Amino acid sequence: MSRRSAAPSPICLWWIGADAPPEGALDDVRGHVERVYGLGTRLWHGPERPLHAFDPVRGQLSSTRILEWLLDVGPHDARKVVGVTDMDLFIPVLTFVFGEAQLGGRAAVVSTARLMPEGGATLNGRLLVARLAKEAVHELGHSFGLVHCDEVHCVMSRSASLIDVDTKNGGLCHDCWTRYLELREGTEVHP
Ligand SMILES: [Zn+2]
Ligand SMILES: [Zn+2]
After folding, report:
1. Ligand 1 centroid from CA 71, angstroms
2. Stretch (H or E) spanning 127
């Protein structure tokens, strides 16, 4: 499952935050994503940042604009590109989102901004990374064509609050796993 394949890897994680990523976080998330999906995953390093996605009135970044930008600027040989940021994300109808993905598409984005534990990343870095890994796996699931799952412990269950995030475990339930295998082998287009 975690067999290493030669580059290019199907999944690329790219830190696109304002500050440096939390220590070791991206490597942990990379390993988790690789274990869950059984696909090679690598870190991509590019200096570009989606500054145009910043909305000065809301003081947040438009996650939808970031998705378009990731497709444009990110590695073109990757099957999936996941942007990871410390900036707060929004879509117009919601106060914030933990992340967003194109259903059955190539791009996903997740943010640490609303996942920060009490005391911050230095005091409770493990919890932050665990939450970030779950949300990265969740958004990637959408990018493979998975929709929300009613099983609250499944990583594809809806995340409206940190309680939801902490309730789910990091993996796909049996039904989502089966569906994922179908989608992965297929055209990645959601019916
Ligand atoms: Zn979702
Ligand atoms: Zn599920």
Report:
1. 20
2. helix 125-143
